[in-house]
């Protein structure tokens, strides 16, 4: 199971989640959209058959069609919606994140840990009744999202697909954190640390000097946040604030893929051309260039937070020490 740490450089911190999975109704269209927006390629879609899926309906066989981004971790994983009304990959889940995933060496120990923490299990996926699960998917418990734990065999299969389709080229970066709005950040920190087995920073007040949300301008916008004390990608917890982009109605789901962007003005113009609108744009003052932005969610289910990489040392210090540097 995942370890913890107290102090140390980023390289000494525990690993974090490995992927997020988005349910899509048209795999080929979704691959094209992700490729256009993020500039990344994907593996050839593969249909996997899980012969022993134990869930609420008993034991069934399940077929899942997926593809994986040809990037460094965390991967973008796309899962084609299934022609049914209920379940993690049901057609009514298209456009939503099915779960965020973690590698796990000891799946039976992880399953015991989740149950001890009161996390309900949606399904376990295995090759037979006596084999340890190769994948575990939970109910929506952790701040309103599902978790997926993937064992070594599936992990190695995905890595092989990426290596085979990439052809030896250097893997590009993907995204460096996911954000979740939570009603009570102190309770969320306690719950996430207990379930995930990784430490979190203390909650800290952060300030956006000039944040524009549509016709509303905040000077400044203040909120409480915390991040996982892990290597990238971080888990970001944001306490519900106001009635806009971080309002309580945004709780209960992963909000966005957060990416570093050195050329913010150019990238925002490109996103606008691609049909995105902005939920929030952050500047140092009204006349300066953007330093961060959050897009609306498009029809595929993509929402992006962009941040200037000048903030990267701050995030690394916060994760490694547990304390946000004072400006």
Automatic annotation (TrEMBL):
Domain VOC: residue ranges: 16-152
One GO BP annotation of this record: L-methylmalonyl-CoA metabolic process
GO MF annotations in UniProt: metal ion binding; methylmalonyl-CoA epimerase activity
Keyword Metal-binding set for record: yes
Keyword tags: Metal-binding
Matches recorded under Pfam families: Glyoxalase_4
Domain of life: Bacteria
Official protein name in the record: VOC domain-containing protein
Lineage: Bacteria, Bacillati, Actinomycetota, Actinomycetes, Kitasatosporales
């Amino acid at each position: 199971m995942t370890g913890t740490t107290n102090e140390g450089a980023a390289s000494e911190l525990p690993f974090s989640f490995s992927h997020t999975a988005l349910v899509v109704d048209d795999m080929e269209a979704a691959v094209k959209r992700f490729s256009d927006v993020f500039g990344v390629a994907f593996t050839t879609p593969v249909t996997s058959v899980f012969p022993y899926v134990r869930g609420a309906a008993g034991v069934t066989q399940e077929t899942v069609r997926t593809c994986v981004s040809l990037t460094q971790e965390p991967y973008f994983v796309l899962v084609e919606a299934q022609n049914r009304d209920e379940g993690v990959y049901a057609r009514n889940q298209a456009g939503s994140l099915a779960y965020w995933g973690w590698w796990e060496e000891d799946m039976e120990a992880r399953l015991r840990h989740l149950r001890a923490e009161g996390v309900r299990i949606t399904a376990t996926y295995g090759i037979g009744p006596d084999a340890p699960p190769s994948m575990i998917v939970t109910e929506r418990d952790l701040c309103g999202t599902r978790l997926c734990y993937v064992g070594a065999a599936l992990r190695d299969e995905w890595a092989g697909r990426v290596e085979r389709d990439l052809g030896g080229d250097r893997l590009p970066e993907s995204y460096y954190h996911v954000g979740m709005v939570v009603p009570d950040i102190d309770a969320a920190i306690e719950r996430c640390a207990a379930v995930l087995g990784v430490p979190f920073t203390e909650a800290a007040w952060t300030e956006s000097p000039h944040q524009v949300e549509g016709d509303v301008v905040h000077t400044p916008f203040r909120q409480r946040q915390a991040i996982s004390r892990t290597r990238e990608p971080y888990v970001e917890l944001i306490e519900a604030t106001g009635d806009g982009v971080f309002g309580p109605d945004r709780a209960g789901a992963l909000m966005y893929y957060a990416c570093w962007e050195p050329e913010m003005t150019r990238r925002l113009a490109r996103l606008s051309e691609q049909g995105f609108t902005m939920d929030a744009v952050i500047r140092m003052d009204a006349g300066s260039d953007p330093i961060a932005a959050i897009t609306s969610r498009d029809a595929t289910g993509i929402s992006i937070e962009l941040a200037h990489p000048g903030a990267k040392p701050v995030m690394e210090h916060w994760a490694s020490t547990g304390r946000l540097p004072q400006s």
